[in-house]
Amino acid sequence: MTKTTHKFSLRFFGLVLFFTFALLFGEFAHPERVFASGVFYEASSKQNKSGSKSNSGKSNSSNNTANSNKSNQSGSYSNSGKTGSNNSGNSNKSKGSGNTGYSDNSYNSKKSNYNNPAASAENTKYSQKDNLIPDKSLDLEELAIPRLTKEDIIIKHTGFTISYNEDHEQANWVAYVLTKDEASSYYAQRNENFREDEAVPTGSATLDDYRRSGYDRGHLAPAADFRWSTESMEDTFLLSNMSPQDHEFNKGIWNNLEMEVRRYAKRFRTICVVTGPVLTDGPYKTIGQNRVSVPKYYYKVILDYSEPELKAIGFIIPNEGSERDIYEFACSVDDVEKATGIDFFHLLDNKSEKELEGSFDVNKWK
Questions:
Q1: Is 59 in contact with 346 (CB distance < 8 Å)?
Q2: pLDDT confidence bin for 11, thresholds 50/70/90
Q3: Could you count the other beta carbons within 10 Å of the beta carbon of residue 302?
Q4: Which one of 27, 105, 234, 284 has the fewest CB atoms closer than 10 angstroms to its CB?
Q5: 177-208 pLDDT, tens digit each
Q6: Is there a catalytic annotation at residue 219?
């Protein structure tokens, strides 16, 4: 080996050692680079999951569920939350739940909780550590309205608002605010004037649909909540506010829950109420020429958005007679959202919505 070749080899070897040490020193000086993809991926994931209610599994996902449940409805709702524009939509009345986004298996896996949610109440009830303060700028009439989708057919009657489901010929939900004075009023007399709702652009269910069906024309918004006005009382007998209910259910446990809700209003002065059938667990038995679906479950969610203590509670009850206490069917508002695909009280700030809807305590309501 010549001297020149030997010098070149030493220089080359020296350069290799230099770059090797430089590379190693750089990695140890910045150890996060060794697993850079994992670190930045995790940070990216955390960023996507935080600060966004729609990614919490409550907003967009439940809206998609609601969209698929109500495939042939259309409508809009004004910013005031009180004036709806109704558009029609006709469809073949498929009673299956294939496109609901809430499978029969997932629903059935939760049925035990719906039938006896009190068994898990200890796991979900809470003692509020931070006192929630109501947002005085919120209009309670607007707060009571669930998040709307473009498929909703919104109908405003005296004292309550309906989202009508043409596929099932009944409401997805009925929402209203009930005050102490209204719940205590006996101004209007019950008139029993059951009739079609001409405000439904596609036509509501008819009296013939219920005749000799074996089911009651069961109120969703109860007439006794609207005795403060003759017009409001009459509006509760529109068939858009009716759903096929087992007679023992209608006159028994459902009536008991309705009376309890009026007691809430008298005790807490003002409450928001949303009620309706669960329409995500078909197929369903139907009645009448218009194939009105017979729901398997009904729900109510109630929000007390007034000081000194804000609170919320939900109920899901099977459409059958029961001698059980209504609080055995109590659950969180989140549970009702999962069962129905409806986003309730969405105008609440994220912190309030998480605390109020994610848990419940029956002792705060009894």
A1: yes
A2: low
A3: 24
A4: 105
A5: 999 999 999 999 998 999 999 999 999 999 99
A6: yes
